[in-house]
Amino acid sequence: MLLSQYTDNRIEAGCDEAGRGCLAGPVCAAAVILPKGYENAMLNDSKKLTAKQRSNLRQTIEQEALAWAVAFVDNNEIDEINILNASFLAMNKAIEMLSIRPELLLIDGNRFKTNTDIEFKCIVKGDGLYESIAAASVLAKWYRDAYMIKLHEEYPCYDWKSNKGYPTKKHYEAIEVNGITCYHRKSFSLERQLKIKFQ
């Protein structure tokens, strides 16, 4: 069972992102405020859950959370400001969209930048420790996956319905044959990576 709170008496928002290591598509972040003492035995790091489990949890989280929000930063902005800053931006956007102002942010990872005056705590592998971060990881991954499945209909040869834009053999082979799309992250030096993969 994950921990429900980091503190006893503050409004906490768990924050996480999905899609940092992808070759294509946006980075997506979520922020979630759960009720104090909230418990859900199914909650865990979204990467350790099946797609069906994430889908079921997504509905539960949205119904039972006090507040939640999801935000995207697209591949063009990722190319402009780099993936780390884009991840921070997506998380900040999600936090700003919350209908309740949190008093403490629980950030998955070891770094964060924000323009708000809200205190934050970075927690490495926090999505496997705190329910609010795990809930945010579920929403971020579910919404990003759904978005990439839609993009797959436009560019089926890259197999985004399966790899969600991550670097797989089939994805690299499709880039080698067809080149890159308007959704690919040009700053990820795809041509150089291809030479390394296929030399």
Explain this structure to me?
- The protein has 199 residues and is an alpha/beta fold.
- The protein has a domain at 12-147: Nucleotidyltransferase, domain 5 (2-Layer Sandwich), CATH 3.30.420.10.
- It is 42% helix and 16% strand.
- The protein has seven helices and five strands.
- It has helices at residues 51-64, 75-81, 83-97, 131-154, 160-163, 169-178, 190-198, and strands at residues 12-18, 27-33, 67-73, 104-108, 119-123.
- A five-stranded mixed beta sheet has the order 3-2-1-4-5, sandwiched between helices.
- Helix 2 packs across helix 3 (83-97).
- It starts with 11 loop residues before the first strand and ends with a helix.
- The model has no long low-confidence stretch (mean pLDDT 93).
**CATH architecture field of the domain at 12-147:** 2-Layer Sandwich
Question: Oligomeric state of the chains?
Answer: single chain
End-to-end CA span: 46 Å
Residue share in helix: 40-55%
User: What radius of gyration results from the CA coordinates?
Assistant: 17 Å
Question: Structural class per helix/strand content?
Answer: alpha/beta
Instruction: Please report the total strand number as a whole number.
Output: 5
With helices defined by DSSP (H or I, 4 residues minimum), what is the helix count? 7
List keywords for this structure.
Nucleotidyltransferase, domain 5; alpha/beta; 5-stranded mixed beta sheet; single chain; 199 residues; 7 helices; 5 strands
